[in-house]
Design brief:
alpha/beta; Rossmann fold; four-stranded parallel β-sheet; 7 helices; globular
Length: 229
């Protein structure tokens, strides 16, 4: 699931990742053309992602996919959708999800952590408020936001697939992502957390310029390769 704060972006943004990794790791990559807010608020985008997941599972044979090793990946808002999709798939019980790879995921609509107020590069508090308000619509600012809209609100993370979380230390999402990794760990979910020093939101897109970004991309690739091995 592609990034874009729930309001921007296209499935075509994942082409660079699949073009590089599919031949190398031997997996089938599927990018979801989920509808965007505010025209389509929650739960529309998440249901699009679930339909895509179910379609891959039901068509695993023709696609050349191992139905027992289907994983989900997302960055930023796409990471929030991936985390929510893992919860939804667990609770609906139709599709087994083998792993979840969450890169600086957008998880908490409440925006109350210390770092959520930082005037950070790339994605700042004003952008964050806009993204959440568009995605949640009338639910925004209320206590009625479900866990499938904002995974940080989930009270039971048990039974979720193994996870990798990667976040930059200068990202407004850093606190909520670290807390989500902690909660997964306490729920007995195998989780690996990478906090990359001195980089903001979207840092992996700077892999041609920054060593810490190159290192994180290598770590993500190695983790994925281990899930597929």
């Amino acid at each position: 699931m592609h990034p874009g704060g729930y309001i921007l972006g296209s499935y075509e943004e994942d082409d660079f990742r699949h073009d590089r990794l599919c031949p190398k790791l031997g997996y089938v990559g599927v990018s979801v053309d989920y509808r965007l807010a505010p025209e389509t608020p929650y739960p529309g985008p998440l249901e699009d992602c679930y339909r895509a997941l179910l379609w891959v599972f039901q068509n695993a044979g023709p696609l050349g996919v191992d139905p027992g090793r289907i994983g989900i990946f997302g960055a930023s808002a796409g990471g929030g959708l991936a985390a929510a999709l893992a919860l939804l798939a667990r609770d609906r019980g139709e599709v087994p999800v083998a792993f979840q790879q969450l890169v600086y995921p957008m998880l908490d609509d409440r925006r109350v952590t210390p770092m959520s107020s930082w005037d950070a590069l790339i994605w700042n508090p004003q952008n964050n408020e806009l993204g959440w308000s568009c995605y949640l619509g009338e639910l925004f600012g209320s206590d009625d936001v479900p866990q499938y809209a904002a995974p940080s609100r989930a009270s039971d993370l048990s039974g979720l697939p193994p996870a990798l979380l990667c976040i930059g230390a200068l990202d407004v999402f850093c606190d909520e992502d670290v807390e989500y990794a902690r909660a997964l760990n306490h729920a007995g979910v195998p989780v690996e957390l990478h906090v990359c020093p001195s980089v903001p939101h979207g840092f992996d897109m700077m892999m041609d310029l920054v060593e810490v970004s190159r290192r994180s991309v290598r770590d993500q690739e190695e983790w994925l390769a281990a899930r597929l091995a």
